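An example makes the point: we print one protein in full, the chain in one-letter code, the fold tokenised, without further comment:
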Amino acid sequence: MSPPPGKTIRIALVDDDPAVRDALKILLETYDVSVDCYSSGMQLLNSAGRHAVDCLVLDLNLPDMSGIDVVRTLRRNGESVPAILISGGGSATTLQHAWQAGAHTLLEKPFSDVELLQAVEEAMGSGP
């Protein structure tokens, strides 16, 4: 990933599984991406730091609210940060709901490093 000169890409990663958070954080930091980690949708929504991120990567199934609900809430609040949802099991209907909520895409676990990085680059290039 190559950010504009003098800028570091900053991603908010929301997943309730610490192992997934840690693995994705390490992966993204390998590509010089700054990662803010959250364990729930409400934790992200209550964080002032969310306003400084370039992209969101959210698990679809979070304990307090779904990743789709988080994206919907952000959009209702006028926040247009690109969002990528990740899921261990989704469907065409789930993907359609993700798009309708304003997410860029839905990645099915397991996904490759390349798939995640490409999704982030595409989301940041096209907006929500």
In short: The chain has one domain: 10-126. Residues 54 and 68 are 18 Å apart (CA to CA). The beta strands are 10-14, 34-38, 55-59, 83-87, 105-108.
